[in-house]
């Protein structure tokens, strides 16, 4: 029996009535949300729904204004976030923008082990270099190790940043719109890689943010649909991703098809309504 207010040690993430306000605006919440080990979540919602804000709390980058956020058995506001953050892998557009163009891919990945951006020391342990190579291989980017970040395509950058976020062997992996800006081939390639990661029992718990149901990799298990900071639906994927819930989240009539574990959505034409 876990006392109220105490983190449940069996959960990776536990949000109780989490609320995030900036000025008069409520960006998130109140939201209750639980992520257990082995689960692969997608967080879906329209622009401005609060997805990135929610993820930044999950990354221990922001504290909730109200409610309680427990991460990996620790409670935000009652723990040293500098010890918590290395246990959480994060790949986001904000991080991508901070990477210097001249940074080598191998250094960018290996430096994650030291929670720094940019290679700040000359010598990393060989074991770190080996792991960096393994992580790059795991996302199909092993051949890019000697390139500089600035020379990579958008799709290659996304894969390298995911390799970096896996470097510390995190318990929770947070991916903020990893397929944004990718062309069709790049998206499909990334979705396939993420499906492989999702199927890997040794992989951490995963939370992936997207606007598009087409980007949900097969093997993902749960979904949280957000609208105006609140959960429209959450739970096992097939129960949460429905035409009805998507219509509510995106505030328009949506029709949905599912083929071989992939979802496809479009707006209903007027004669379908
Ligand atoms: N510091 C801030 N002060 C006030 N409002 C903010 C602040 N940061 C974000 N917002 C607003 O909060 C809302 C949620 O933003 P957030 O980036 O979390 O949404 P999102 O679902 O990730 O959006 P998108 O899909 O467009 O990236 C938006 O309306 C945004 O303008």
TrEMBL record:
The keyword Nucleotide-binding applies. This is ABC transporter ATP-binding protein. GO terms for molecular function: ATP binding; ATP hydrolysis activity. It comes from the Bacteria. The keyword Nucleotide-binding applies. Keywords: ATP-binding, Nucleotide-binding. Residues 13-253 form the ABC transporter domain. Signal peptide: none annotated.
């Amino acid at each position: 029996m876990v006392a109220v207010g105490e983190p449940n040690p069996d959960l990776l993430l536990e949000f109780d009535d989490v609320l995030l306000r900036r000025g008069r605006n409520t960006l998130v919440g109140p939201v209750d949300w639980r992520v257990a080990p082995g689960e692969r979540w997608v967080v879906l919602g329209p622009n401005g729904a609060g997805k990135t804000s929610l993820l930044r709390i999950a990354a221990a980058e922001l504290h909730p204004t109200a409610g309680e956020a427990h991460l990996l058995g620790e409670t935000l506001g009652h723990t040293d976030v500098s010890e918590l953050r290395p246990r959480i892998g994060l790949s986001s557009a904000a991080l991508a923008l901070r990477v210097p163009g001249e940074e080598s891919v191998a250094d960018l990945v290996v430096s994650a082990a030291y929670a720094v951006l940019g290679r700040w020391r000359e010598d990393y342990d060989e074991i770190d270099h080996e792991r960096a190579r393994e992580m790059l291989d795991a996302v199909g980017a092993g051949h890019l190790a000697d390139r500089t970040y600035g020379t990579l395509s958008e799709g290659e950058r996304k894969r390298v940043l995911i390799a970096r976020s896996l470097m510390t062997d995190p318990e929770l992996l947070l991916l903020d719109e990893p397929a944004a800006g990718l062309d069709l081939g790049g998206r499909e390639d990334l979705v396939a890689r993420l499906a492989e990661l999702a199927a890997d029992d040794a992989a951490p718990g995963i939370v992936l943010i997207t606007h598009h149901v087409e980007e949900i990799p097969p093997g993902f298990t749960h979904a949280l649909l957000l609208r105006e900071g609140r959960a429209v639906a959450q739970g096992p994927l097939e129960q949460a991703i429905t035409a009805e819930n998507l219509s509510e989240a995106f505030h328009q009539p949506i029709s949905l098809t599912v083929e071989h574990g992939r979802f496809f959505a479009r707006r209903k034409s007027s004669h379908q309504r």
